[in-house]
Design a protein that fits this description.
alpha/beta; Rossmann fold; 2 domains; 13 helices
Length: 399
């Protein structure tokens, strides 16, 4: 980048920051003191990964007479409210709507009066401007963040991103690509609080008792999640249907339960259309709460899924899981040594860790590393598991 481009980028950043600062400070919020402020504004999967760390942070905070406040996306409020390791919860819109300047100002105003001791930004791959601005307006002296610029390719606007980080954070730790996301987050929190935290398996015992999910007539079922929040990561619907057909032929007593968000209904219809025995399939897309989904996962014989939040639920509950996954963030989420009941399927390629900036196709409907996963590979693994666990109770650990 030329000197002129750097100067232009720096000028634009400081101008936008100054305008934002002025608009936010037009109305000061109520003065509030928060000890440790955690920024975790993303979806279910990343939140679940951080649970063991957030539990440890809470314990450390109590020992030093401090509090823990977490900032989460609005769609995670119900789940976060059930977590006993937060003293305060602040919700903001998920990062997508934050491009609207007036919305951004309205959100930031609620942080203008907050005084925190330490801010830990747990956002890595989904991090955007709103979390950085929140970190600034809390007026904390100690602000910590992870950056992955050297480990993964970055999106346009990297110069402004770097300027903002240097301007806001007191400590910027470099992401270690040889470690998982959970291990990197643990290292970040350890540095921020001067306490040795450990990367350990999560548990969801604090959510119990779980509600009774809407189960099919037969309790002998497995889960299929053919959708995800990012349609580019979805394995082909015909391949999902092919796996269901094989399972039905091999084990006609097993019932397939399709689940996911309401947005996945069309995907489920396409899968069901290609299945030979539709009576063995129950569609629960958009019909379960998050807690009911957790109960469904816990009672399932096994799970077949794309790379989505249900994968992390299944891994934490130690259910046997077959996951089709791409390599955009390979090493961060998978493989994960703590997820020893998960079997991953992907296509070998020389462009792993592309940060989903696909080098092979400019605008793929589905990323090639997901699309090219062979049906036979997944089918053979599922059949092997069924042959070895014919009489296993669904409530037992299957590995």
């Amino acid at each position: 980048m030329s000197i002129l481009s750097k100067l232009k980028s720096g000028f634009c950043f400081y101008l936008k920051f100054a305008i934002t600062y002025f608009c936010v400070r037009l109305r000061f919020g109520k003065k509030e003191k928060h000890g440790i402020l955690l920024l975790r504004n993303d979806g279910l999967g990343d939140f679940l990964i951080s649970i063991p760390l957030m539990m440890q942070i809470y314990d450390a905070a109590k020992k030093r007479g401090s509090t823990v406040t977490v900032v989460v996306s609005e769609n995670m409020l119900d789940f976060a409210s059930r977590c006993p390791f937060f003293d305060n919860i602040i919700t903001i819109p998920l990062r997508n709507p934050m491009g609207n300047f007036l919305t951004r100002i309205a959100v930031l105003r609620q942080f203008a009066g907050i005084q925190a001791e330490t801010v830990i930004n747990l956002m890595v791959f989904g991090r955007c401007g709103i979390e950085d601005y929140i970190a600034y307006f809390t007026k904390a002296e100690r602000k910590f963040v992870l950056e992955n610029f050297n480990a993964f390719p970055v999106y346009p606007g990297i110069a402004e991103f770097r300027n903002r980080s240097k301007f806001i954070y007191s400590s910027i730790l470099e992401y270690n690509p040889e470690k998982t996301l959970q291990e990197n987050e643990t290292a970040l929190a350890s540095a921020a609080l001067g306490t040795k935290f450990l990367s350990v398996p999560a548990n969801l015992d604090f959510l119990r008792p779980l509600p009774s999910p809407p189960l099919p007539d037969t309790g002998n079922y497995y889960l299929v999640i053919a959708g995800s929040a990012n349609s580019h990561k979805n394995w082909d619907v015909k391949k999902f249907a092919s796996i269901i057909n094989v399972i039905t032929e091999f084990r006609p007593d097993l019932h397939a339960v399709m689940t996911g968000s309401a947005n996945d209904m069309k995907i489920v219809c396409k899968v069901t259309k290609d299945c030979t025995s539709r009576k063995n399939i129950t569609d629960l897309c958009g019909k379960t709460t998050l807690l009911e989904l957790i109960a469904l996962v816990e009672n399932a014989r096994f799970i077949i899924t794309n790379d989505t939040g249900a994968l992390h639920i299944a891994a934490i509950l130690r259910r046997k899981t077959f996951c089709t996954i791409g390599l955009g963030h390979w090493g961060a989420y998978a493989p994960n040594p703590l997820y020893n009941t998960v079997e991953y399927f992907h296509t070998e390629c020389d462009c792993a860790r592309c940060n989903w900036l696909c080098r092979k196709e400019t605008n793929p409907a589905v990323y090639p590393c997901v699309r090219e996963i062979e049906t036979d590979t997944v089918r053979n693994a599922v059949l092997k598991f069924l042959a070895e666990n014919t009489g296993t109770s669904r409530n037992e650990n299957l590995l």
